[in-house]
Amino acid sequence: MNLFVIAGFLGSGKTTLLLSIAKAVSAAGKKMVVIENEIGDISVDDVMLEGEGLEVREIASGCICCSLRSDLINTLLEIERDYNPDIVILEPSGVASPKQVMSALVGYGGKIEHKHVAVIVDAKRYQKIMHADIPIVKDGINSADILVINKCDLVNNDELEMIEQGLKKIRPEIKTLQVSTHANINVDKLINTFLAVPDNGKSKDKVYFDLNKGKGTAPIAYAHGFDIPVNDDFNGKVFAEEISAVLKEISLELEQTGCKLIGHIKAIAKCSSGGYMMFSVTSAGQCPDIKGRLPRKPENLKIALNVIVYGINKNIVEQIVIKCLNNGGINNG
Ligand SMILES: Nc1nc2c(ncn2[C@@H]2O[C@H](COP(=O)(O)OP(=O)(O)OP(=O)(O)O)[C@@H](O)[C@H]2O)c(=O)[nH]1
Ligand SMILES: [Mg+2]
Fold first, then answer.
1. Nearest bound ligand to the CA of residue 96
2. Does the reported pTM lie above 0.85?
3. Ligand 1: does its nearest atom lie under 6 Å from the Cβ of 181?
4. Going from the N-terminus, what domains does the chain have, and what CATH number goes with each?
5. Residue 271 vs residues 161, 234, 302, 310: alpha-carbon distances, Å
């Protein structure tokens, strides 16, 4: 069994990239399982990946790098016993320390031939995220086997050069790869790198990450799940516009109320008979990226909304979410 970890800060593009890689790996005839560990009480990513036909194991809300170490080990043992896949792809939550995730596997009783950690760097938000000085971001850069500079389609060459230089200051020897999942730039190279890089033994490192370091910069995760009544005159386009307007409003209000950094605001609408629509916002005032499709006349719609932000009180996040949903005319039960 080979373990590939796709780590990186909130909203850097892990799941989007994972989906492209997973499809290619499956198409190459390899047996593969995806493990998702998402921050927040409601998962969004696994709903989306399952909607794309993938087999996903979810590890309950909480972070696999600290409190859920045994869950990770047990899940892997179970997967090895029941499926024995060629490849396991693990997406730790965007606030997990990749170093701790790998350290959590020390003493794993099963057989992992090859481990490889790709850390995704968000090119568009590079400066903002680095300035926020969140310990796990630097920790991620330090523990990567490869740094994937994603969202290249959103920045120019000068910005890319500046990011490369910034990363090389921290890890002079590190391999970097400039990627755009949306524009399909270098995703194939990443897939090849994934399959080719040998285990460098990093997982045998001792844990030295200081948990207390992150105290001042802990994220707030607020989750909200509800059903939406669907009428005969349901219109998917109007629905998408309404949800988009609400999410944009939430991001703006959060910023105006002093939120230090938007990690990821994401929502998924799912219909029980199949089909989903996912919305994602990673900066204030951004029109959400939308992925997926709903049936023309869904018989029901379940919404899961996850807001992960820094530097703001959870009650205020809740108030803002409820207010914006109400203002947007979204009946949130
Ligand atoms: N422009 C652009 N956007 C991208 C690219 N890759 C991902 N995104 C967008 O970035 C946002 C976050 O993507 P996700 O794949 O959900 O990020 P993630 O790292 O899995 O997020 P979390 O699991 O919440 O930490 C989405 O709106 C994606 O559409 C890219 O190459 N270019
Ligand atoms: Mg994700």
1. 1
2. yes
3. yes
4. 2-214 (3.40.50.300), 219-327 (3.30.1220)
5. 43, 13, 6, 31
